[in-house]
Amino acid sequence: MLSLTALLRGLSLVVCCVLAWYLGQVLAVILPPQAISLAVSGIHRMAVDVPRVTAPAPRRQKCSLWSACPPGSFAFQVASGGGIQMFPKICFEDEIITGKGKDGTGRGMNIAAIDAASGKRIASSHFDMWLGENSGAMVKFIQEIPTGSFILMATFDEGSTKLTEEAKKEIEKLGSTEIRNIGFRSSWVFVGAKGFSLPADMKKEKMNHSDKSKNRYAGWPAEVQLQGCVPQQRRL
């Protein structure tokens, strides 16, 4: 039975091939060469001219945000940690204020002051919290920032050793609730305000402590990052 079935299938295939060849010969005699050429060209165009849908390239947003900030707000990004080779980053309205190769970037506390009405940088600096007594200079820097300013901060390498009580109180005035928890080589980022309050539901700071059993990089914790939009303020 199996042999007969196979034989019938083979015969059917031969018959189909003969019929197809015969039909092709008949059409070649009946139809003019121009008609056959047009038919072949039409089939080729149908195969080639298939509509292609191409997704547009994603538009890059300010400070590498996933989506654009709404009107009346500013984009920001603050990052700290990830090892000694990873410099801190403070970006505001797509301007990299603090980062590798940028003036005012260094070990300790990195600070950028931004006019909350215009979104323009007022001042930026860093204060070494490992060598020297620089907390007093940092307090003076913060106190001289005009009212109506955003203040963005990020640690680099070590930001706690020389941080005084006076300096912690000054940072708390800007809205920080975590500064007293900072430890040796903690990664810390903060977005505060002077003279007004940021939205209550806005994430304003993050901290990641150095832990030998958990550190992703030798001696340093993983990166922490804040990014989003801050509401523009009316000029006082």
From TrEMBL:
Compartments where found: Secreted
Q: Could you tell me the keywords of this UniProt record?
A: Disulfide bond, Lectin, Secreted, Signal
- Which is a Gene Ontology cellular component entry for this protein? extracellular region
Q: PROSITE patterns given for it?
A: GG_LECTIN
Q: What is its main location?
A: secreted
Q: Which residues form the ILEI/PANDER domain?
A: 107-195
Which molecular-function annotation in GO is an example for this chain?
A: carbohydrate binding
| Keyword field contains Lyase | no
Keyword field contains Disulfide bond: yes
Can you tell me which family this protein belongs to? Answer: Belongs to the FAM3 family.
Protein name in UniProt:
FAM3B protein
Organism, scientific name: Atractosteus spatula (Alligator gar)
